[in-house]
Amino acid sequence: MNDSTTVIPSTRPSDAVTAMVDHVLALAGTWTRWDGVPAHVDDRVYTPHKAIRRVADHLVDHLAELEARLAGEEPQPDHWHASASTTDADRAPFTAEDLDEARSRLTRLARIWANRLDALTDDQLDHSPGPGWSFRRLALHLTESAYYADAVGDLS
């Protein structure tokens, strides 16, 4: 989809991204109780590890797109298997150590996003270079990553 000139009024895009990560990590805080039974949602299978992987992959993928477009380069196509693939690692128990790693990983990715988005002007956010969504729309799209964590849910 190419709506690079669409202006979407909202809160700061950085706030939307960090709030999504906060939501994911709040749910992940309950996943050390996971019983090993995957959640089946919308013809897909979700586990705690898969949810964290998908959120991180989504953040990395679109960050690479944003940075390439700012540099005047063609974004590199992603080759993620996305949510269609559930690996053996996705089915592993989700331990307190995994939660700590997820917190470190996702918090850092959210800060990178927030720092990058906050450094852009409103014009850059709303009229971003290259084909694709505006960077404001891209940031709001990232909030849809909460879907993966919501699929696993609150296990407390």
Explain the overall architecture.
This protein has 156 residues and is mostly helical. Helix 2 runs antiparallel to helix 6. The N terminus is likely disordered. The chain contains six helices and two strands; from the N terminus they run H-E-E-H-H-H-H-H. Strand 1 and strand 2 form a beta hairpin.
Give a brief outline of the structure.
With about 160 residues, the chain is mainly α.
Shape: elongated
**Count of individual beta strands:** 2
What kind of oligomer do you see? Answer: single chain
Low-pLDDT windows of residues: 1-9
Helix content: 40-55%
* Straight-line N-to-C gap: 38 Å
Q: Within the largest sheet, what's the order of strands?
A: 1-2
Per DSSP, the total helix count is 6
N-to-C series of helices and strands: HEEHHHHH
The assigned structural class equals mainly alpha
Rounded to the nearest angstrom, the radius of gyration is 16 Å
The amount of beta strand, in percent, is under 5%
What is the mean predicted local confidence, pLDDT?
Answer: 92
Largest sheet: 2 strands, antiparallel
Secondary structure layout plus pairing:
Elements (H helix, E strand, L loop, with lengths): L12 H16 L10 E3 L2 E3 L1 H23 L25 H23 L3 H5 L8 H8 L3 H7 L4
Antiparallel strand pairs: 1-2
Provide tags for this entry.
6 helices; disordered N terminus; 156 residues; mainly alpha; elongated
